[in-house]
Amino acid sequence: MHDVLDERSGAERWERCLDRVARAVVSVRIDGTRPFDTEWNETAQATAFVVDHERGLMLTNRHVVRSGPTVAEAVFLNHEEVPLRAVYRDPVHDFGFFRFDPARLRFMEPVTLHLAPEKARVGTEIRVVGNDAGEKLSILAGTLARLDRPAPNYGQRRYNDFNTFYIQAASSTSGGSSGSPVVDRIGDVVALNAGSRTQAASSFFLPLERVVRALRCIQREQPITRGTLMTTFLHTPFDELRRLGLTAEREAAARARDPGGTGLLVVAKILPGGPADQRLELGDVLININGQPLTHFVALEELLDERVGETLTIELDRGGTARTVELRVADLHAITPRSYLSVGGAILHDLSYQRARAHDVPLRGVYVANTGYLFTGSDLERDAVVLEIDGQPTPDLDAMQRALEAIPQGAPVKARSYSLEAPARERLSLFTMDRKWFGMQRAERDEATGLWPPRPCPPPPPNPPLQPVSATYPGDASSKHAELARALVYIDARLPFKLDGIHRSRFRGAGVVVDRARGLVVCDQNTVPLTLADVHITFAGSVELPGEIVLVHPLHNIAVVRYDPAAIGETPVTELPLAATPAKPGDSLTLVALKKNLQVLTQSADVTTIEPLELPVPQPPRFREANLDRISISSSVKTIGGLLADQAGEAVALWSNFSYQLGKDHRVTEHGTPISLVQGVLEALHDGLSPEFLDPGAEFQHVSLARARRHGLPDEAARRLEAHDSDARNALQVARICARCQEEEGAGWRPGDIVLAVDGRPATRFHEVERALTRGPVEVELLRDGALIKTTVRGLPISGAGTDRVLHWAGALLQAPHRAVMMQRGIPPAGVYISLYWYGSPASRSKMRAARMITEVDGRPTPDLDAFLEVVRGRPNRASLRVKTLDLEGKSQLQTLRLDLDYFPTYEFRRDARGWLRVDHP
Fold this sequence. Notes:
Elements: H1 2-22, E1 25-32, E2 42-52, E3 57-60, H2 62-65, E4 70-75, E5 81-89, E6 96-99, E7 125-130, E8 138-150, E9 165-170, E10 181-183, E11 189-196, E12 202-206, H3 209-219, E13 227-228, E14 231-237, H4 238-244, H5 248-257, E15 263-270, E16 285-289, E17 292-293, H6 297-305, E18 311-318, E19 321-328, E20 330-331, E21 339-343, E22 346-350, H7 353-359, E23 366-370, E24 384-389, E25 392-393, H8 397-405, E26 412-419, E27 422-432, E28 440-444, E29 454-456, H9 480-485, E30 488-494, E31 506-515, E32 520-523, E33 534-539, E34 543-552, E35 559-562, E36 588-594, E37 600-612, E38 629-633, E39 642-645, E40 651-662, E41 665-674, H10 676-686, E42 692-695, E43 698-704, H11 705-710, H12 715-724, E44 730-737, H13 739-742, E45 754-758, E46 761-762, H14 766-773, E47 778-784, E48 787-793, E49 796-799, E50 805-809, E51 812-815, H15 819-824, E52 832-837, H16 842-845, E53 853-857, E54 860-861, H17 865-872, E55 880-886, E56 892-898, E57 906-912, E58 915-921
Antiparallel strand pairs: 1-2, 1-4, 2-3, 3-6, 4-5, 5-6, 7-8, 7-10, 8-9, 9-12, 10-11, 11-12, 13-20, 14-15, 16-17, 16-18, 18-19, 21-22, 21-28, 22-23, 23-24, 24-25, 24-26, 26-27, 28-29, 30-31, 30-33, 31-32, 32-35, 33-34, 34-35, 36-37, 36-39, 37-38, 39-40, 40-41, 42-49, 43-44, 44-45, 45-46, ...
């Protein structure tokens, strides 16, 4: 009976304790808005708890506060929200503080939890109260099992604590419980939850001794000094110390000073170039500093934190020999980055002690936290450390900024660097300077606000005049094949933004010069998929020039780019002659194409088939060739594009790469595109026009006449189609129609229609329908649902400029719905299409995923970008909005979104006759 009463009393005590603790614990929503140091930009959830309700101070983990730009808000037990401001993140240990305004809480009075590090003892029964695994409030039980566990190692690329013990218990915490208080049955906090082992129930808690000191400094408005020798120590037991050579006398003295002690601190890692480099050695046993014996991490840190900038006398045992060294204490805050440079979408900052220590490299150079657009196509990746820019040393971010500010837009830049994964191997990289799409800004943490306000850098210097450069071609210049090869160029296209469902940021392929005087080059869309891109064109594998995108065909796998003919000097470029007669099966042709190594391939090939190209529908929607009779040849050699020429040396087809998606794999197939499709584009360009095309509004497929008869095709109609195209024995059937065309009067296609005649003539080929529609509205004869009907169809105008306007809003990239969305998914163009979103943004937090349409904001329709801007214009920072979206299956969803104009301002890019221009919106 007595045991039952004790158990009930203990349960009631825990219940009263946890009721009080829960009022201090909050769920924290964190948006890491920029990649920085060991962290990516991301959206996450964690836990914090109030440690001073009068001053509005909350304690959580360092990896929650984060070392870079952070936007956070707390949700209390009663679901009241308050914004948080990061006020401190420790340079080494996994704790930090947020501040909130207590006056913003209207419906509850928060309580302060008392920090009691001295109460952490083996056997103490504890509860972890927090936001475990994303739940609003979870309470996990455990018992402290160990107080001297080594700091957990989360991996070389991630943040890791060191020079401290951790406390271990089996409480099975998981993601979301980071920053939770570990409380005893009185409700005092004995430790801070920090991490766990996923394969076991073990949880890791941070001791609170140094946390208490930092809290008191904040409360007293004093600086939190942090000192370091840039050395990692491990607490090593006496049995191992004896193997390291510790003398019996020193062991006896250490045990006498600390009867309960089990070991001493040993040097485990020394940062190259740091205060201890060449002075301390691995395995040195720390005996005392300035005559003060030190056996635990807390005592060591107390001494270092109080003596920043001073010189200490350190006594060591090195293999049984006493040594004395003098070391100067460095400032930990000074080697922890608090500023970054954003250029070309890349994020650069000083190499941090955290990353340098993990990889044993000196604190010198500039760290690439994010490659952005700037380094697309180069081998400079995240975790690279840049040492030089164009031969100028970049020991720190200031030097890096000066070097980059002196480089003109679009200029090639040489960077000497190494990867933290292979620090002994330097490499020389080449990238292209970009100040056009993303600009260049320096951001530094403002301790008063917790924000990282950007400061624009000076504009780049002007570009020097482009000097003509000439090159020669290899081989016999008089041969017919060599003449065709001189029409080939190599094109490198880089995309600052992934629009229209495009899946990559860089595309490379071959182009063919079709107008030497005007510098016009034709290529496929697996080489140039968008007009919003930077292109460079290489001639003879020797001369590289910037190019301009003229058009991207909205219907077929063709794009046109332009170069300055004067810039290639005397380079003997050939203008490709176009054949008037189309290819047919059995023709003997010559394939002239480029391989990946830019070598020219010349090979005889026979036309094997000319038949419809059928590619699977991609997810998400993006350009996919349709309504094309592709040319297949006997060659199986892989190329990046070229041409097919007849015996007269005239091009009958472009040899094109067609991109398609199979499951989650993006693949490419090679076929010939009839040159007739290019000729109409070139005629319009020769007239000085900006080509506009007519969209038939439907995708067709071939069905056999036998199958058409099963649909009800009359015998007489079948015989007419047979006579018109005796080889094919097929009819055209409408496979799908464009939602845009359903909106237009006179677009008379319906899925399943079988085409019998167009403009009074039988039609069994795709080009016959497209060509007829260029003459205006035409009458078509169809077999629909077993009945013969006549109706009028017309092509709908569609520009070759492609997507010519994109809007960045709340961390999402918005555009008008592109044709593939309307054609492949049947989504009508009444809304704003989400092309992508950035992690750590309001769009990410609100789960506004790509490939959705925004149809309403705060109940007001947003049929296009102008209407959308009108609705959101003038909304203040941190304002909340209701956003209604539509997915590709037509299902609606309502989401709430809170603006973050500090890190995700509103701006757009528009394309006009001057090119792409940025427009900022207040």
